[in-house]
Specification:
The complex is a heterodimer of chains A (119) and B (172). Helices cover 69% and strands 0% of the residues of chain A. Chain A has 119 residues and is mostly helical. Chain A starts with a helix and ends with a helix. Chain B starts with a helix and ends with a helix. The chains are: A mainly alpha (119), B alpha+beta (172).
Chain lengths: 119, 172
């Protein structure tokens, strides 16, 4: 009975680990742009390039690389264009800060119009 | 006076945004690879096409010789077009042409070489396309001119007469 339970536990555990790895694999390939097909992620594409890239991501995960390390590896090969989620650097800081700036500016307008005028 | 500064600032803000987006419209949204940046060649191990033996990149690219690493496949039509130019390059003493057979059927690849001749000093096997990714390639044909373990020129698409001359000049 104990042996049976252990086997069931082992199977469940390994399938859970597999599912976790697959989720991470999917998450990474969804954030990678298929460079030879327009407007598609590597995850969505079935091109030769995308299929090879999916295998590379799987290999790198098996080698023990984490998500960030895989992005760095691919960025070095293909440039930042391969990432859908651009990183915060001197070329993208405006892109990241613009919504916050607009939010603050909007808040200031509202504050000025309603709060200060009432007082 | 205070009231006037605010609308002016707002207009300036929107004009700035307009120009940023207008400039953004002119950028190409098609991937344009950088081809003239010197990069180190990747370190890898691969099977040799003819013998299936494993070979490392250090054993292939030695010293200060020039190598042209060409990614090809028998199913790729432009590869057929550039093949005569590779044959010319293979006669050059200072350049060694290395082939990377990409996602191909081995028998068909052999027929391809029998039909058009073999310009390659060595042919490596890339059965699932992962080695091409290590090289930063995204399709076939693609070629890399290598000197001192560095990629000095990347050619995307088939070779042509002009590129052939450029390669010969670079390798002088």
């Amino acid at each position: 009975m104990l042996r049976f339970l252990l086997i069931v536990l082992f199977i469940l555990n390994s399938s859970f680990l597999n599912a976790q790895e697959n989720n991470l694999n999917n998450k990474i390939t969804k954030n990678l742009r298929c460079l030879i097909c327009q407007g598609q992620s590597v995850y969505d594409s079935d091109s030769e390039f995308a299929n090879s890239l999916k295998l590379v991501v799987e290999e790198k995960l098996n080698d023990g690389l984490n998500e960030k390390q895989i992005y760095i590896f691919l960025k070095e090969k293909y440039g930042e264009w391969i990432l859908y989620d651009p990183e915060f650097n001197k070329n993208t800081y405006f892109l990241w800060l613009l919504p916050i700036l607009m939010f603050i500016a909007g808040g200031a307008i509202i504050f000025k119009l309603f709060y200060i005028r009432k007082n | 006076m205070k009231l006037r500064i605010f609308p002016i600032l707002l207009i300036v803000f929107f004009i700035t945004i307009f120009f940023i987006f207008y400039k953004g419209l002119q950028n190409s949204n098609i991937y344009t690879p950088v081809v003239n940046i010197e990069k180190n060649i990747p370190s890898f191990k691969s099977k040799i096409f003819s013998t299936n033996e494993k070979i490392s990149s250090e054993q292939i690219f030695k010293g200060d010789k020039f190598y042209l690493m060409n990614i090809w496949a028998s199913w790729c039509v432009p590869c057929r077009d550039e093949h005569p130019l590779l044959m010319i390059l293979s006669t050059q003493k200072n350049i060694k042409v290395i082939g990377l057979n990409y996602k191909d059927n081995k028998e068909k690849a052999k027929i391809f070489l029998k039909e058009l001749n073999n310009p390659y000093d060595k042919i490596l096997l890339d059965e699932n396309g992962t080695l091409a990714i290590e090289w930063g390639a995204y399709g076939v044909p693609e070629s890399f001119l290598i000197h001192n373990n560095k990629i000095i020129k990347k050619i995307i698409g088939p070779l042509n007469e002009d590129l052939l001359l450029e390669i010969k000049k670079l390798a002088e």
